Amino acid sequence: MTPVPTNDNPFAGDNSGIQQRETAARWALRIGSYIVVIITLAIMLHIFIKGAPVVFRSQWPFVNTQFLTELPATLHVIEDQQGNHIETDVNGADAIKKKLGDNFRAEKTISYSGGGILGPIVGTALLVVVSVGVALFLGVACAIYLSEYAKHGKFLEMVRLAILNLAGVPSVVFGLFGLGAFVLTAPTFVDVPADRSVFSIPLGFTTLSFEGWDTCVLSGGFTLAFVILPVIITASEQCLQAVPQGFRETSMALGATRWQTIRYSVLPFATPGILTSSILGIARAAGETAPIMFTAALAFKDKLPWQKDLPPLPADASIFAHWEQSVARFFGIFTESVQALPYHIYTLAAKIPQNEYAERAQYGSVFVFLVLVASLAASSVMLRKRLRAKYRW
Amino acid sequence: MAAETSAPTAAEPLIQVEKFNYAYGDNQVLFDVDLNMRSEDVTALIGPSGCGKSTLLRSINRINDLVDSARVVSGKIKIDGVDLYAPDVDVISLRRNVGMVFQKYNPFPRSIFENAVYGLRVAGIKDRHDLEEAAERSLRSAALWDEVKDRLHEVATGLSGGQQQRLCIARAIALQPRILLMDEPCAALDPIATARIEELIHQLRGQYTFVIVTHNMEQAKRIADRTAFFYKGRLIEEDDTMNIFNHPRDPQTEAYITGRLT
Predict the structure, then answer these.
(1) Residue A154 near chain B (CB below 8 Å)
(2) Which of A95, A130, A136, A220 is deepest in the core (most CB within 10 A)?
């Protein structure tokens, strides 16, 4: 037996370069991740630095309430002989000019940059509610059918392919589709069909006319729903598939119908995941600009959707009439066109001459937009956590 | 062997499998199976993996209908002389009469009580008192009542494996079925839990007709009145359990029970 040299480590690495390649690969991947994180943080920080001062104040109530509670308006900036700038709205401009008298030097008007952004916030919230509502209903229904009822085969593969393709359609195409389908041809009940009606079916007491819903929250919401539908269907189907097959078999072996099985033993356990997918849907629906440009959004609107002029009720109107008007007012919200945050930002950034006041409004809107989307997402995450704690297997 | 008369007599078996051929797509897994199971017997189905015994078991309550490609090629399974695959058979009421316990204990992640009454709930029973009574009765039958009576509303997945499997049995017998199908009910359990399940089957013997798929031949010996040996989709031999294990007629059966056939 030859004695082994004591200084020879049998586990020493060789010099084939394997270690170096391992280190290089690890660092390449690590640097890639760092770049992503840095860019994300840079975007956030940039928006925070530029946008937070617009929204927050150093004095009580610390928040720029005007920015959050007023509709957008034209900003009037009046300059006096000393070079001071006074910001005001259209009503205040004359009074200030009169007070300044000879001290007045110049007046600038900047569109959309005054007031606040309540209109776009409300509009985006309504669009998100309608689109996520429609997309969740259609998407979950479709996912349940595909996952629980449809038989495996060519047809199912084709449907899946179609859904994947839908996800690849550019959003402006959805906008045009929405314009054609919902704004111009969707069916609605009217007393007298409009001239543009594609065709109409008299029903006696009313007429079903394919004349479209016009540009409104409903049209935009449905269009956005189709934008986010593929995401919701795909994610929901994955969540349904993740529920153990044993739950289905057990439930049906206990004499449950397929629908009872889905209702009691599949859906409750897939819901947390489906909600996660709706988070993605919310963020996407709130952020899309192209699909709502032709279907719902206006560059400017001086009224909130519920501030509609309805004929005043007579003093002796019955409770029923009041109730009817409230209902009409509620549903009227969805048949109004609105301002929306992404489109408002686009208008501020691309449609008006750029200056410090327009920039301020832009970043303020972007900041509020981000906070809104983030808080929507956060509430969904919290809801999912609570559901997950309830249904664990 | 199949009785031609439709009038049920004491001698007539409860479950009759007649020339049963079954396939998944083009892959036939059962060939001409003829098997009769007597009322109140415990029948064990044994055989190596992939021999078709589970498929046969899962055809008796038609739970295999859930598999897209599964189909009956020819032949019949009858309970009380009624062909289960006849068009006028409602699978829901069939499954209420034929309970099933699966290999992997899988109570729903709900309360113990909700698990026990699941079958009754989906059958439309809403009365709280009826449900509570049924839950107690079935949990007592499954020898679980004393262990869980103080925590009926705790989540069932917190129970031990053996308790979960007994809950699954309670859940199946809450519907008071005539037949209980068990697909390797102890495969996921430790020996002590297994012994309790076997003890339970002994207690319930006579109240239900048991059909049990098992890989454990000792278990078949301990609990089964009759044993059927399957190999490659065919029924090789079926007899009293003691005969199968002591005097197998077929060389393949002998090879399997002595561990020379896998």
Answers:
(1) no
(2) A220
Residues of chain A where predicted confidence (pLDDT) is lower than 50: none
- The complex's ipTM? 0.88
For the residues B92-106, what does the mean pLDDT come to? 91
Residue A105's contacts (CB-CB under 8 Å, 6 or more residues apart) are: A79, A80, A81, A83
Return the residue matching tokens 């629908």.
A259
Tell whether B157 is within 8 A of chain A (Cβ).
Answer: yes
A255 contact partners, CB below 8 Å, separation of at least 6 = B92, B93, B95, B96, B119, B122, B123, B175
Mutate to test the interface with A, among B57, B62, B64, B66 (most CBs of A within 10 A): B66
If you count DSSP H runs as helices and E runs as strands, how many of each does chain B have, helices first? 11, 10
- Percent pLDDT > 90 in chain B is 66
Distance CA A93, CA B250 (A): 107
DSSP string, B115-136: HHTHHHHHTT---HHHHHHHHH
d(CA B20, CA B91): 18
CA B142 vs CA A268, B159, B185: distances in Å: 27, 14, 13
When CB atoms are compared, the residue of B95, B106, B108 closest to A252 is: B95
pLDDT band at B119 (very low <50, low <70, confident <90, very high): very high
Q: What pLDDT does B4 receive? A: 44
DSSP state of B156: G
Supply the DSSP symbol for B231: E
Which residues of chain A neighbour B93 with C-beta distances below 8 Å? 255
- If pLDDT is split at 50, 70 and 90, which confidence band does B55 have? very high
- Residue pair A377/A132 in contact by the 8 Å Cβ criterion: no
The two tokens of residue A43 are 């975007």
- What is residue A251's predicted lDDT score, i.e. its pLDDT? 94
Instruction: Please judge whether B99 and A249 are an interchain contact, meaning their C-beta atoms are less than 8 angstroms apart.
Output: no
One-character DSSP codes across B63-114: GGGGSTTEEEEEEEEEETTEETTSTT--HHHHHHHEEEE-SS----SSBHHH
Please name each of the domains of chain B with its CATH number.
15-107+177-257 (3.40.50.300)
Q: Is B52 left (phi over 0), alpha (psi -120 to 50) or beta?
A: left
- Any chain A CB within 8 A of the CB of B171? yes
Contact B171 A254 (CB under 8 A): yes
Give the pLDDT confidence of B186-224 residue by residue, as tens digits.
988 899 999 999 999 999 988 899 999 998 888 999 999
Cα-Cα-Cα-Cα dihedral sign, residues B7, B9, B14, B15 = negative
> Residue A184's pLDDT is what?
86
Amino acid B6: pLDDT: 45
Among residues A145, A148, A258, which one has the least CA distance to residue B92? A258
CA distance to partner chain A, nearest, from residue B116 (Å): 11
Is the pLDDT at B229 greater than 70? The verdict is yes
A252 Cα to chain B: minimum distance (Å) = 7
